[in-house]
Amino acid sequence: MSGDRISSLFTIFNNVHCPFVYLTNSHYPEWELPDAPFHPAFPYLSDTHKADYLRVYMMHHFGGGYTDIKFTTKNWTPFFEALQNSDKWCLGYTEVGPQGVAKVGGQLEEVLRANYADLIGLCAFIFRKNTPLTQAWITRTHALLDSKLEDLKRNPARHPQDQLGVSFTDGTVSAYPIRWTELLGDIFHPLIYEFRDRVLHADIAPSFAHKYR
After folding, report:
1. Distances from the Cα of 131 to the Cαs of 26, 128, 146, 195, 211, in angstroms?
2. Are the beta carbons of 8 and 39 closer than 8 angstroms?
3. 109-163: per-residue pLDDT in tens?
4. Are 180 and 49 in contact (CB under 8 A)?
5. C-alpha angle with apex 131: 129 to 137, nearest 5 degrees?
6. Element (H, E) at 101
């Protein structure tokens, strides 16, 4: 992790004022439930897509908050209280603009971009566990991975940020079968729009002004 990321991690430790877990490669298996195993495609995913998958898995089975490792000054206690005292299923910051919408293509993307203010972003949020929203989220994620499993076995990730069609330094082009946002944003934004009446918006976003190396 770069120095910038480490500094940002400590702003999370110091400012969110709630219990937290820093999920790492060494202990994420501790969170796998015996009656809800990780999808069989998980070992073949890039580190980035493993993190995307775990975000879905944790929100559905455990609930709670998630944040990227970004600089934050926010106390999260009021956000948990706001969600707890509402009838909503999740809380997040309003998507930053049309440019923040996942590039799902076609008319759906046009609708999402036009209605970006109904969406929440992916960098920080809180979810109630096991709601119809999280159930739909993990079901659609597993359906995608089902469709990719055989291709993933033939073409597992070669790089932590592998994605379909990316060029490697040796001149080869990746055949890893998942696009950059396909496993998370492409599923998340349409779902949030579908369940928009169950979404609470709040100023939970980390800082996007900091540049990371």
Report:
1. 29, 7, 22, 11, 35
2. no
3. 999 999 999 999 999 999 999 999 999 999 999 999 999 999 999 999 999 999 9
4. no
5. 90
6. none
